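Attaching the record inline, Q. Sequence:
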Amino acid sequence: MIRRLLIANRGEIAVRVARAAREMGIVPLGIYSQADERAYHLEFMDDARCVGPAPAAESYLDIDAVIAAAVGMHADAVHPGYGFLSERASFAAAVRQAGLTFVGPSPEAMAAMGSKIDAKRRVRDFNVPVVPGYEGDDQSLAQLRMQAEEIGFPLLIKASAGGGGRGMRVVESLAQFDEALGAAKREALAAFGDDAVLLERYLRDPRHIEFQVLGDAHGNIIHVGERECSIQRRHQKIVEEAPSVAMTPELRARMGEAAVNAARSVEYVNAGTVEFMLDSDGLFYFLEMNTRLQVEHPVTELVYGIDLVQWQLRIANGERLTLSQDDVRPRGWAIETRIYAEDPANHMLPSIGTIERWAPPEGPGIRVDSGVRTGSEVSVYYDPMLAKLIVFGSDRAHAIARLERALDDFTIDGVRANVPLLLWIARNQGFRDGDTTTSFLAKYLDESIFSRHELSDEQKVLAVASMLLDGAAPWRIGGIGIPLRLEAGGSVFETVASATAQPDAWQLEGDLIGRLVARRHGERIEASLGTLHARGESARGAQRFAAPPSADAANSAGAIAGAGSVVAPMPGKIVKIAVREGDAVASRSLLIVLEAMKMEHRIESIGDATVKTVLVREGDIVSGGAPLVQLD
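Structure, as predicted:
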């Protein structure tokens, strides 16, 4: 029996598993990196051990360190959560070799489904339809190019290992193929330690439907209905719901049977998810099987009245499923939105910093699975998801109304979050009508609606006062003054603040001129600049330091940089330098590839120029705004 459970993860999933374990009388144990020594999830653990430095590869992905932590805290089982090591067969094997129970499938099943190539071959033998494509062992560029031409364009390059949109690229033509393949392979290798890819016909407007499955060690396998996860950005889900508006009882039976057959193809035990693409013609195709708990599992829990995490633990304890397929019937409607530290007004680029206020919504039918609190640090090292907001209603219209209210009540200060995007989705008529295919955002969203409005003079004074009082200015010029450059509504204003003999006074020069006197009273600021007097809460929610030019790619935001200095749009790691000093570059020429929060971002030239200086090296860790390349 499991008595002490190591949860080999961080963030909201570590909190979720710890709560389920404690309800069953199981002691939750945690791990953390040096960057996470004050992380929220540790508050839910009876004991925890540091497993290494901030980079995930040196901590959360260090199998030996995680196993040592489990043994050192006398755990008898390990729950991997999702992400990190959750789908590494080698980790599951190492846990078992250490004499511990792995809360998940066998290493053999995980290895078989962990390779999308092997998975497609296996499920095809169990009469599960698969997307036409190439999943061969020959991974040479020549072979992949030849297969791409045969499949036709558009096509999808997909990492064989892992998920979450990493190592995935949509390619529109053969001319784009080599570069997209290189990027997909680099991203896959960095995230999953395996750069093998498969190619698939790209379905332009399908629905992403997945089925939850549960299997016990006694040969019983059932599905627990479907979830629709079609609304995605960069191939990452942001809205999930159960059931699906596209589902009929007959289609649910056919897809559910295919999901169970896919699980049987590897004699699956524990919780897993079989993902399908449902095309507009009603045909569906196997996409992949995730051999772990899914981020979106709460919508299934609410609609089917089942605690999936506790069932994971019960199955790991050797218990039989007490549910039959006939017992599984949906009731009501649940919708989940993922709360990401991403800025809708800056092309959804990740935002890092300290959460100064975390005030999630409350009320009937509202559940928030959070991995942060006020004071939490959002780091460049990990996925930008902060929490999940899940709502439940008697029907879809009721759930959407509850979702809209809950999002409207969600307050996050200190970092930018995607709540405005999610609120826009909840209010969009296409979403309300159920037109939720994978092209939903491309079809309906105009990101310019998130552009900020011009600040009033009072707001500008409060913004400057807030940063000076908090010591938040990111640049300083040799003790002379603090140059402040702020952006609102696409416009930028700049000023330099020089200290005076008075602690709460500064002399401003630039777009704001005069003597600024500012004091903070709790959450409120009182400031004066000449005859202008301003009182109110910090304007930080309406302004930010002007961002560097943003990046453009299949998974980033707009091209950057003409002549002048090219700077990093966010903190990250330089994974590729595509130019050398003296190179001539044209519009949209690739300059740098920056990896941040597990995703690659392309830094491109916006016009014709010559590379004067390359200021970084591959492997460098850079801060947001750091100069990368100088162009003439």
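Residues 457-542 form one domain. Residues 473-480, 539-563 have pLDDT under 50 and may be disordered.

More tomorrow.
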